[in-house]
Amino acid sequence: MAESAAILRNCPTSPRKMRYVADIIRGIDAEKALNVLKYSSKHASEDLEKLLLSAINNWQAKNEGARIEDNQLYVKTIFVDGGRMLKRWLPAPHGRAFKKRKRSNHVTLIVDSRPVTAAPQAPEQPASPAKEKVAPKPRVVKKSSSKSPAKKSAKKTTANA
Questions:
Q1: What stretches of 26-123 show up as alpha helix (H) in DSSP?
Q2: Which of 3, 118, 153, 155 would staple 112 via disulfide (CB 3.0–4.6 Å)?
Q3: Residue in 43, 42, 33 with CA at minimum distance from that of residue 6
Q4: Which CATH code of 3.90.470.10, 1.10.357.120, 3.40.190.10, 3.40.30.10 fits the domain covering 4-113?
């Protein structure tokens, strides 16, 4: 089946906070991802839940007549990019001002159905006579070369006169 995408633009959350939640749902089934997002305490999970529902609806529109349960939808790709940044000023001590950056992000989420793989079948081996087991080779132990300890340098003595 065809994959489907949904894009969220200019979400007023920092990309770092959004990536934390995006990493949790990357690669898991769509139904499980919805449950994870629904019961997550992170603020970003609300936006990602709506985005995932939108991607699932887009997939249904592309694949009319196909059931989600039969196709095993999963989050194929999700990435978070930085969006525009609003810059504001905060008053600071001694008449100065600090710059405050209000960050936003863009999220792209792609869902797809898992490919159906048949159970791998082992190729049939022709009946062969039992092979004789070969004894393992004995280990060769190297003798450590005995080196003499380093010579100590003779101490210099100074005569106090």
A1: 30-38, 44-62, 68-71
A2: 3
A3: 33
A4: 3.90.470.10
